[in-house]
Amino acid sequence: MDAVLEFFDTLLFGDFEMERQVVMIDLPKYKEKLVDLELAIKGCMVNNADFDPARWWGLFGGSTRHLKKIAMRILSLTSSSSGCERNWSTFEVVHTKKRNRLETNRLNNLVYVQFNANLMEKTKREKIGLWKCF
Fold first, then answer.
1. Which of 17, 71, 116, 133 would give a disulfide with 57, using CB separation of 3.0 to 4.6 Å?
2. Does pTM surpass 0.85?
3. Residue 12: what are its φ and ψ, rounded to 5°?
4. In the chain, where are the structural domains located?
5. pLDDT tens digits for 90-123?
6. Where are the beta strands (DSSP E) in the chain?
7. Residue 68 · residue 62 · CB < 8 Å
8. Rounded-to-integer distance, Cα 47 and Cα 91, Å
9. CA end-to-end span of the chain
């Protein structure tokens, strides 16, 4: 329980009212099953490839509104590092042996511009490709 409280403290840092709502109202409701969870429990009995936790919270988390919001935030996080890998790839292009003395802020700005320029170019190529189909 200490870890759960520490997690909420970190996640809701500075939002004392929300933290109070979660810890004092929603969490006890959820833990003590004071809300009607019979259908909700049946909804997740079969935990197969079709089970979607975000959908479950969307359907059955209404009575614990703050916990639902937190669960949806957590379930929305990506579980792969592909976004980071793309960023690091762009970083390697910008940060070379000749440009290894750049300030952190300037380096971040260059990576941002380079990444977005590549993204714009990709979007432009896709649009041109779509027009060629017609």
1. 71
2. no
3. -105, 30
4. 2-75, 82-133
5. 888 888 877 778 888 988 898 899 889 988 998 8
6. none
7. yes
8. 40
9. 60
